[in-house]
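User: Working on a comparison across species. This one is Cytochrome P450 from Macaca nemestrina. Can you predict its structure so I can line it up against the others?
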Amino acid sequence: MDLFIILVICLSCLILLSLWNRSYAKGKLPPGPTPLPVIGNILQLNTKNISKSISMLAKDYGPVLTVYFGMKPTVVLHGYEAIKEALIDQGEVFSGRGSFPVAEKITQGFGVIFSNGERWKQIRRFSLMVLRNMGMGKKTIEDRIQEEALCLVEALKKTNASPCDPTFLLGCVPCNVISSIIFQNRFDYRDQKFLTLMKYFNENFETVSSPWIQLYNAFPFLRVLPGSHNVIFKNFALQRSFILEKVKEHQESLDINNPRDFIDYFLIRMEKEKHNKESEFTMDNLVATIWDMFSAGTETTSTTMRYGLLLLLKHPEISAKVREEIDHVVGKNRSVCMQDRSRMPYTDAVVHEIQRYIDLIPIGLPHAVTQDIRFREYLIPKGTTILTDLTSVLYDDKEFPNPEKFDPGHFLDESGNFKRSDYFMAFSAGKRICAGEGLARMELFLILTTILQNFTLKPLVDPKDIDTTPVHKGFGTIPPFYELCFIPV
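Assistant: Here's the predicted structure for Cytochrome P450 from Macaca nemestrina:
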């Protein structure tokens, strides 16, 4: 036993020495807490709230620090100045996608979110081009969102003002909007395939935000154990089958001179490049990109809306002011449109404050540096994973006084006009900023105003007793379960 303990101590010292030598051989990494052998700094991080742990470490080590998730060093950026300097001022160098093992196991480096290098550049450029062709940022996509929002109103009326969980219905609008772009069709809210697809996205987002997945990402060898990561993998396999079925239908009816949707555009590009062995337009990239677009385009908007309604239940005086502004600017006889937003500063501020306050993706998706880089006084080696503590920007108390309070005044000036802020990084920033930002902003504004134009939100308990504390704050921030009544006005 004594010999075993000696061997463990020696091995631990060798590992620590290796880590130390690696950091100084490749560059002078920023300071940080001393890592333990194998497990790194994981014991100093709260897997239920990584951003809170980072904030505490930043007080000791500054806005640029190194943290070991397992044996891999990760450079963490805390605060607006450090994040802006990296993602915006040196955006190209910080445009790589860092390690995210649970997603890498699913996408294998394909698609638009978790790809790198030339593949990422080509697929992202192509995807943005097709989204614009399909109407993103234009009146055509606005019309689709308005139509889907009215379908939501009809579905909410069928609840007959009875208590209901809004999770599924709020997800229907963004899911059907992205479906119309990818598949050129929407689903009926009672369609069983649609219900199942929505369940998978919701389940995946909640699971990937759990403490277990934070551990999995630090120690990918945990995949051999039973755990919730297997739920994500199972759901992805079923989602992949659904996507492949849709792709097959498109292949059978494809008209290369008349593309109907994203799949058609991609298949046409695949056909054009079929003799190019280096082409990135492959079936693997098509499936992964569709999955990326659905995942990013459905659950994030849905969760934001679900959390937003909970905050409005907690603060009925705020929803009353929004409804008053809707009545004044729009009335009840027509749908709200994006042109109305400039005349609705309070509502615009509420939508921004919901996104700021809920802090949906606290540390963003991991970045990586694409080359060796001197950042401030440090040398960061090529390929190093970079985490951006977006919470530290959205909750900066100099930009947003009393940030722990839900207050639309954070986005209003003294005259009540909407006030923009460079600190609003709800969609991240730089080269890897969310590709669907414009679509998401449009959806959030139109869905929220359409709901409040047609319904009063009634909580089941006294507003002061509503708890808005998230159940998870890992990869994403997950609101607690609640029910409410939609009272027609």
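For your comparison, note: DSSP finds 16 helices and eleven strands in the chain.

User: Helpful, thanks.
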